[in-house]
Amino acid sequence: MRAGDLGRSPGTATLFNRAISCSMANGSVGRNSARGVTRSRWGKIRTMRHIWIKTNLLTLWLLTCVLPVSGGQESEIDSFPDFLQTDAGAALPRGGNMFCGPVAASNSLMWLRDRGYSRLAPNTGDARADQLAVIQELAEPPFMNTAAKDGTTPGPFLRGIRNFITAKGYQTRRLEYRGLESVRVAGVQTYEVPPDMSFMCSGRTGNACGWLHVQYGNFVGNLQEFQCVSAHWLTLVGFGEDSQRRRFLIVHDSSPRAGKGFAHNYLHLQAIKEATIVAKRYTHSAAGCCLITDGLALKHNTKDALVDGCVVLELQ
Fold first, then answer.
1. Fewer CB within 10 Å, N or C, the chain?
2. Which helix (H) or strand (E) is 45 found in, with range?
3. What is the number of other CB atoms lying within 10 angstroms of the CB of residue 15?
4. How many distinct structural domains can be found in the chain?
5. pTM of the complete model beyond 0.85
6. Are 106 and 194 in a shared domain?
7. In angstroms, rounded to a whole number, what is the distance separating the alpha carbons of residues 1 and 5?
8. Same domain, yes or no: 25 and 127
C-alpha cells in the first residue's frame, strides 16, 4: 500500500463495510454475554463493552469522515490499474521518470479493454505485461512521442490518444480538452478555459475516462503568482462527496512519490479566485483553476499543486 494521506488506500468501501460488520459483531457479543453472568465476570464484560463502544465510535468516525464514493463506483475504482512509471522491471527510458503521460493513459485503456473494447490492449493473461506493451506503444512517435526531457505535454497527449484509438479500430464519441495551455489538435474539442469540477467528474461518468494535467509549484508575491516547477498526468478513476458535501476526485498517481503499491488518492480541490500562473509554455490567469488542497504527494521542492488541464474520452 502506498504511503500518503488519509484515505489513500484501495477499497475504502471495504474498510467501511468491515468496520460496520465489526461493530455489529462486537455489539451482539457484548449484549449476549451480559445475560445470566455472575459478578465475577463484570470486569470482562466492562472490557467487552469498552471494545464495543470504541468500535462503534470508529464506525461513527467512518460515517462522518471517510470519503464515500458516489454512483456505485466502489468496485469501479478498484478495477483501474495503478502502474508505477518507475517500475524497474518495466525498463522504460530514463527509468520512466518522464512517462507519466503514457502510464496514466494506459490505466484507463486497460480498464476500457475489460469493458468491451478488447482491441485497445493485448490480453495474454499477464496484465502487467499487457499494460507495459500499451505504455511502450503509446510513447512511440505515431502516438504521444514522449520526450526524454519534457515528457508528454497536452498537445502530444491528445494526438496520441486520438491516433491510438483510431489505430485500434475505434471511434471517439467525445475527446475533449479544457485547460490553460492553448492546444489545437484536429478531431479534438479544445477549449482554453480552466476545467471545472463538473467537467472533470464527467470523465468518470459511464464508460468515460479522464486524465488530469497537474502543475506543481509555489505561490509567490503575496499569493498572487503561481510559479510552475513541473507538470504531471494523473488517471481519474472516480469522484464522490464527503460529509461536508464537498466533492472530491479519486485518482491514480503513477509517481513513486505516491508510493510503490496500489492506492487511491482522494483529492480535495478549491477554486482559485485571483492569481496568475507562470508555466514553461504559457502565462495565464489562474482564476477558476482548482487548487489541490489535500490528497496529492507533492514534489520535494514545491508546496502546492493545481489542475491546469483535463482530458475526457468517451468511445462509441
1. C
2. helix 42-65
3. 14
4. 2
5. no
6. yes
7. 12
8. no
